[in-house]
Design goal:
This protein is an all-alpha fold. It has helices at 6-24, 42-48, 55-71, 80-94, 101-108, 112-123, 132-137, 147-190, 196-203, 208-211. It comes from Menidia menidia (Atlantic silverside).
Length: 214
């Protein structure tokens, strides 16, 4: 009797073989799927989020946010839906709409962690410090470094600070040990000198319990 999952397994490996064979085909190298601009998704997502009469205003603000995110290299290597979700959430808050992260995630179809990462990256840009009036009127000339580059620099800086902190802790511990040795030596020098019969036994290593039997 064949295994109940034999058919599913064979279909799976057949699909893997077809996909691998298609990747190796010479004609696949000539096909280049166009990358859609994130702004193309904004109107549809905004309609699903039901902004009512302000739908156009929120969409335009979100598109402007996406354009700024692209200038700050936040779109490179990322799916457009993540940028759209972050832009729509910020635009909604700017126009006094209370849309939650969960509502945005359900519409743009990205995970909550991805959306929060895009928001964190946007928070680190100068644009996030502008008011809505300044944002709609002012175009900042400067561009930020890509988030992955900034994260790499921050990680390297944190590692360097950690190494410096460990070195300082080690130096302090050595200094404390030196002080402790000096204190012990000073206490030892001030201890009264033993004399007489007890001193002789003490120097030979006899304790007080043994002396009690004498």
């Amino acid at each position: 009797m064949p295994h109940p999952h034999t058919f599913e397994i064979s279909v799976f490996f057949s699909l893997v073989w077809v996909f691998s064979d298609a990747q190796d085909a010479p004609w696949t190298n000539r096909i280049k799927a166009p990358r859609l601009h994130p702004c193309l998704y904004i109107p549809r997502f905004a309609q699903l989020l039901e902004f009512g009469e302000k739908n156009h205003e929120v969409s335009m603000t979100a598109m402007r946010l996406v354009q700024r995110m692209k200038r700050d290299w936040m779109h490179t290597g990322r799916r457009p839906s993540g940028l759209c979700g972050a832009a729509l959430l910020v635009a909604a808050r700017l126009h006094d709409f209370c849309r939650t992260v969960k509502e945005i995630v359900n519409v743009v179809k990205v995970c909550e962690n991805t959306l929060r990462k895009r928001l964190t990256e946007f928070e680190d840009t100068p644009t996030s410090q502008l008011t809505i009036e300044e944002f709609m009127k002012v175009d900042l000339d400067q561009e930020c470094d890509p988030p992955c580059f900034t994260a790499g620099l921050l990680k390297k800086k944190n590692q360097q600070l950690e190494m410096e902190l460990k070195k300082k802790i080690g130096d302090v511990e050595d200094e404390i040990q030196e002080y402790q040795d000096e204190i012990d030596a000073e206490l030892e020098s001030r201890r009264p000198k033993l004399r007489g019969v007890y001193a002789a036994y003490a120097n030979e290593g006899y304790d007080s319990k043994f002396l009690s039997f004498i």
